[in-house]
Structures are given as structure tokens and as C-alpha cells.
UniProtKB/TrEMBL annotation:
<dbReference type="GO" id="GO:0003746">
    <property type="term" value="F:translation elongation factor activity"/>
</dbReference>
<feature type="domain" description="Translation initiation factor 5A C-terminal">
    <location>
        <begin position="127"/>
        <end position="194"/>
    </location>
</feature>
<protein>
    <recommendedName>
        <fullName>Translation initiation factor 5A C-terminal domain-containing protein</fullName>
    </recommendedName>
</protein>
<dbReference type="InterPro" id="IPR001884">
    <property type="entry name" value="IF5A-like"/>
</dbReference>
<keyword id="KW-0385">Hypusine</keyword>
<dbReference type="Pfam" id="PF21485">
    <property type="entry name" value="IF5A-like_N"/>
</dbReference>
<dbReference type="GO" id="GO:0045901">
    <property type="term" value="P:positive regulation of translational elongation"/>
</dbReference>
<dbReference type="InterPro" id="IPR048670">
    <property type="entry name" value="IF5A-like_N"/>
</dbReference>
<dbReference type="InterPro" id="IPR012340">
    <property type="entry name" value="NA-bd_OB-fold"/>
</dbReference>
<dbReference type="InterPro" id="IPR019769">
    <property type="entry name" value="Trans_elong_IF5A_hypusine_site"/>
</dbReference>
<dbReference type="Pfam" id="PF01287">
    <property type="entry name" value="eIF-5a"/>
</dbReference>
<dbReference type="InterPro" id="IPR014722">
    <property type="entry name" value="Rib_uL2_dom2"/>
</dbReference>
<keyword id="KW-0648">Protein biosynthesis</keyword>
<dbReference type="GO" id="GO:0003723">
    <property type="term" value="F:RNA binding"/>
</dbReference>
<dbReference type="GO" id="GO:0045905">
    <property type="term" value="P:positive regulation of translational termination"/>
</dbReference>
<dbReference type="GO" id="GO:0005789">
    <property type="term" value="C:endoplasmic reticulum membrane"/>
</dbReference>
<keyword id="KW-0694">RNA-binding</keyword>
């Protein structure tokens, strides 16, 4: 008789669990955890997120082993995109690595930068692009350029350097010419002019 009463109370306890055993709202039915991925994702709404990006996702630099760099190539020196003008390699020490001494000129302002790097380490190399545009007009210090697809761009400023003076002279003489624009690390600049063929 005692055993039957005890089994009845145990059965009742499982049929109607007390409030302390019941699951809290927003917990996992299997483990009673509120930190499962399914519960976190349940309230996620893509419309609530702000994804205001305009970049193509391409990196402005890529890593390359220092020993693979070559003269007249490009490299980032002290945070500036540079063209390598001199490169020397020192011999290895008893316990050390061979060191590469790099000398480069900034591709936009021609400032000289130097760096010393172990030959087995990686250096950042900028993605440099070169594009030609047909020169159309010069208006209040900004160039008007024609792209290959027929659209015009007027966002490049005429710089006060030798190339800028050359463009201004050719414009005043009424010449037809093409300008070469170099782009690296989010910066663009006219680096050369050439006569139309």
C-alpha cells in the first residue's frame, strides 16, 4: 500500500511540474539554455540591420614575401604606395635571417621611403591600376575626362606640379591628348600625358 501511494505522487509530480521546474520563456526545450544559436537567430531580422557599404570588397593591398619583390615593382613603405627604385639583400648572420633593404619613391608625390625587412617575412603590396582617359576640358581647376564607355568624370583636380603645368599648356594650345591616371590605396592622380594617335 505504501508503494502504490508513493508511485501515485511521483506520477502526479511529472504530470504537473511545480513552477520552479517549468522552463522560462525563451529557453531551449532540450537543455533549458538561453544561449543556443536557434534562439539567438529566431529574433534576427535582416531588415533591422544596416548594410550601407559601397566598396567592391577588393583589398587595396595584398601580402607578398619580401624576397619575391623586384626593382620597379610596387610595395607599401611606411604606409605609402611606392615604386621600388633600389633593393639590396644582406647575407644571413650566424642565427639570423637575410635582410632586404628597400628604397622606394611614393607613386603620387615622389617622396623617398626606406625599409628593412627579413627576406622571409611578408610585405604589403598595393593594387595599382593605370587607366587612360581622353582629356576634354579644364574647368575651375578640375579636369573633365572621357571614359571608354562614353561617360565623363570631373572629379580629378589639376595639381600644381610638372604634369599639371603640361596639361594646362596643352589645353591652352588646343591640343588633343590622353591623360594616364594611376590609382592605389583609394587615391587617384594624373601621372602622364600622351598625344592622341
Amino acid at each position: 500500500m505504501f508503494g502504490s501511494v508513493q508511485s501515485a505522487t511521483v506520477h502526479e509530480a511529472f504530470a504537473h511540474p511545480p513552477a520552479t521546474i517549468r522552463r522560462k520563456r525563451g529557453t531551449c526545450p532540450l537543455c533549458s539554455s538561453c544561449h543556443t544559436k536557434a534562439l539567438r537567430m529566431r529574433n534576427f531580422n535582416m531588415a533591422d540591420e544596416d548594410f550601407a557599404t559601397v566598396s567592391s570588397g577588393a583589398s587595396e593591398t595584398y601580402p607578398q614575401q619580401c624576397s619575391a619583390l623586384r626593382k620597379n615593382g610596387f610595395v607599401m613603405l611606411k604606409g605609402h604606395p611606392c615604386k621600388i627604385v633600389d633593393m639590396t639583400t644582406s647575407k644571413t648572420g650566424k642565427h639570423g635571417h637575410a635582410k632586404v633593404h628597400l628604397v622606394g619613391l611614393d607613386i603620387f608625390n615622389q617622396k623617398k621611403y626606406e625599409d628593412l625587412c627579413p627576406s622571409t617575412h611578408n610585405m604589403e603590396v598595393p593594387n595599382v591600376t593605370r587607366k587612360d582617359y581622353q582629356f576634354l576640358d579644364l574647368d575651375s581647376g578640375y579636369l573633365s575626362l572621357l571614359e571608354d564607355n562614353g561617360t565623363t568624370r570631373e572629379d580629378l583636380k589639376l595639381l600644381e606640379n610638372e604634369i599639371g603645368k603640361e596639361i594646362k599648356t596643352k589645353f591652352e594650345n588646343g591640343e588633343s591628348f590622353v591623360v594616364t591616371v594611376l590609382k592605389a590605396c583609394g587615391e587617384e592622380q594624373v601621372v602622364a600625358t600622351k598625344v592622341n594617335n
